[in-house]
Amino acid sequence: MSNSEKKERVEATIKEMGLQDARDTRISGGSAKGLSGGQKRRVSMCIEILTHLKLLFLDEPTRGLDSAASYHVMNHIAKLAHHDRRMVMALIHQPSSEVFELFHNLCLLSFEKTVYFGLRSEAEQFFASNGYPCPTLRNPFDHYLRTINRDLDAASHALKPDLFNHNFKN
């Protein structure tokens, strides 16, 4: 890849990640104000994107971002994964419903155990068939987390089937 192609790719990545206004800002300010936490996170993702690895692992890429910025960043990552045929693994604790819809596969863990691993599009049926249907108009991901985080809502779970101690219908 020529130097001009590299510069073009860097410029495109900066623009796509919404960092063009921060291009001349120090990452860590010292005595001057540096980048915000969300901007630092996006710079980190840009570096990973530019290395062009086939596996991109993102640890909480939306932490510190508002829902609009989270969607923008994750939509870009999803397009990049599809276009460049990259595998993306992202640890995301609380995605908006729009970000959640960008996922292809889903791995839900609780108490260091896998509760669900499969297609995002099949998770709702999985939970419903195990006695935990998602209420209408609720973000499915919020429903899944509330269902599997039993320690935070012990009273309501005492009356429901135990997702952790029986064979799943999947």
What does this protein structure show overall?
This protein is α+β, with helices and mostly antiparallel strands and 170 residues long. Helices cover 44% and strands 14% of the residues. It has 7 helices and 4 strands, in the order H-H-E-H-E-H-E-E-H-H-H. Strands 1-2 form a two-stranded parallel ribbon. It has a two-stranded antiparallel sheet with strand order 3-4. Helix 1 packs antiparallel against helix 2. The longest helix is centred in the middle third of the chain and has 18 residues, at 67-84. The N and C termini lie far apart (47 Å).
Order of helices and strands: HHEHEHEEHHH
- If strands are numbered along the chain, what order do they take across the biggest sheet? 1-2
Instruction: Tell me the fraction of residues in β-strands, as a range.
Output: 5-15%
Structural class based on helices, strands and sheet pairing? alpha+beta
Number of helix segments? 7
Shape verdict: elongated
Fraction of residues in H or I helices: 40-55%
Using only CA atoms, what is the Rg? 19 Å
Biggest β-sheet description: 2 strands, parallel
What is the total tally of β strands?
4
Report, as a whole number of angstroms, the end-to-end distance: 47 Å
Overall mean pLDDT stands at 83
